[in-house]
Specification:
Layout lengths: L1 E6 L6 H6 L5 E4 L13 E6 L6 E8 L3 E3 L8 H4 L14 E17 L11 E3 L3
Parallel strand pairs: 1-3
Antiparallel strand pairs: 1-7, 2-6, 3-4, 4-6, 5-6
């Protein structure tokens, strides 16, 4: 199974927003999920400063498509990325992945240490 790392901040818990179905687009700076099997659920792994990575739920991700920078904020109501935040786009734009069939776990599952890949956008593991 694949899991994607979703960094949450004090202001916005992006991971929970995804698994509860509020956040409908996950954004990345490059097409990092092109090799993932889009038919299988993907674990959403919440990360953040001082937080141990934990699985908070599952979603289906559709194949990515590129959104140019000048259109990025037109989709704010789907991705929740604040203008000027560290997750905002630069002149290159960002990749969008539409989210379907979200499932939130009642109790998060801590990601085992052997599956933590710092500096990567995703990990592969067995539950």
């Amino acid at each position: 199974m694949y899991g994607i790392y979703v960094q949450s901040t004090r202001a916005i818990d992006y991971a929970i927003s995804l698994v509860k179905g509020y956040k409908r687009i996950e954004t990345r700076t490059r097409d990092v999920f092109k090799n993932m099997d889009k038919r299988d659920p993907v674990a959403i792994i919440r990360t953040g400063k001082g937080r141990k990575p934990e699985i908070v739920g599952f979603v289906l991700l559709m194949p990515g498509y590129h959104c140019p920078a000048e259109r990025f904020q037109d989709f704010f109501q789907y991705h929740f990325v604040q203008p000027g935040s560290k997750f905002d786009t630069d002149e290159r734009g960002k990749w969008f992945y539409e989210v379907y069939d979200p499932v939130a776990l009642e109790t998060p599952i801590e990601l085992p240490k052997e599956h933590i890949n710092h500096g990567r956008s995703y990990t592969e593991f067995t539950l």
